[in-house]
Write a structure and sequence with these properties.
Chain lengths: 117, 241
């Protein structure tokens, strides 16, 4: 199992990144830091899925003169392009909500916000 | 205490993930299931069937055009939500009504100002190149739009908002922000009228140029829409309309 993990070290890196992001989301008190952690988690998933499409010695999947097989898998790249755009959209919405919370409550620390209720 | 508990929880989370990773096909192998089913078909027939030498562009704009159509709607909706969240607060805020915030642009050093003025035409050309060449090289609408949006944000920070806004006249700004979904719908309806299906591309080999043209039209729409949406979100968060 360890040998397999070593061969799949790219996937392990994305697991580590995911855990770093989850750690940020759980322990950080500042809402913006929480969203940064969420973005790290998203990035780890993107990295994982793009790594799934990698082929040893593969070129970019662009045909035309001089293109030589093998090519990397285009489908994960296309899916992740969609994922990145959606991640940007959610981040923009989350940050604007943080701005509103700050205007309304004067703080973006999660524990202070909880005490306010 | 909280940190130790969190660390223990993370170990608990990562163990099943690591186990799953060790069961996956080897990284980079050409025989993994992800690579042997539909990818070869796309790689083989993509350029002639879908109209672009860049197979990624084929997949996002032609084979899975519906998906991307929904995606550009998502980013447009997020812009609308940002407007709704931030503008709703501004009306009820008495503080800003009684003492308007200082709107002066901070002083920027002449060096920064000069460098930005010098670089912006080249950045703009690069953005246009990335958008227009998205079908034959790495790039495309989202990427080029992001480059242009970054240019707009840089110009806002360094040269002031008035200069940056000249690139998007207020009269047509709403239209520019909606450009991506609108072009997608336009091309989709054109396919509906001419070939009987929403987002249908012409299939005949003689009409290959039409496929490529439609891809470029969608790319331009996404580029324009992406750039104006990114800059609008930035301006909105800066506290200015």
């Amino acid at each position: 199992m360890i040998v397999h993990l070593w061969q799949n070290i790219d996937y392990v890196a994305s697991v580590v990144l995911f855990c770093i992001g989850l750690y940020c989301v759980i322990t950080k008190n500042n809402l913006i830091k929480k969203f940064i952690g969420l973005n790290i988690m998203e990035t780890s998933v993107f990295a994982f899925i793009v790594a799934l499409g990698v082929v040893d010695g593969g070129d970019a999947p662009i045909m035309g003169a001089g293109a030589r097989a093998p090519f990397t898998n285009p489908i994960p790249q296309a899916l992740i392009l969609t994922g990145i755009v959606v991640a940007v959209s959610t981040t923009a919405l989350a940050l604007s909500l943080v701005i509103r919370i700050y205007q309304h409550c004067g703080t973006i620390e999660a524990d202070e916000l909880r005490e306010m209720e | 205490m909280k940190r130790a508990l969190t660390a223990a929880f993370l170990v608990l989370v990562s163990l099943p993930l690591l186990y799953a990773m060790s069961q996956l096909p080897q990284h980079g192998s050409a025989t993994s299931p992800a690579y042997t089913h539909i990818a070869p078909r796309y790689l083989e027939r993509g350029p002639e069937e879908a109209g672009a030498e860049n197979v990624v562009t084929d997949v996002i704009l032609n084979y899975r055009g519906f998906d991307t159509n929904g995606e550009v709607t998502v980013i447009f909706t997020s812009l609308a939500a940002v407007f709704a969240v931030l503008l709703a607060g501004r009306e009820g805020d008495e503080r800003s009504a009684s003492e308007p915030r200082a709107r002066t642009t901070p002083e920027v050093s002449p060096v920064a100002s000069f460098v930005v003025r010098l670089l912006s035409p080249f950045v703009a050309i690069f953005a246009v190149y990335v958008v227009m060449n998205g079908h034959i090289s790495p790039g495309g609408g989202f990427q080029g739009g992001t480059v242009f949006g970054a240019l707009l944000i840089l110009a806002t920070v360094v040269l002031g908002k008035a200069t940056a806004e000249k690139l998007q006249p207020a009269r047509i700004r709403g239209l520019l922000q909606a450009a991506a979904p609108l072009t997608f719908i336009a091309v989709g309806v054109a396919g509906l009228i001419m070939f009987g299906d929403y987002l249908a591309f012409p299939k005949a080999a003689a009409l290959a140029w039409v496929r490529t043209l439609w891809l470029i039209v969608i790319e331009i729409g996404i580029g324009v829409g992406g750039a104006s949406i990114i800059s609008a979100i930035f301006w909105q968060m800066g506290g200015d309309r």
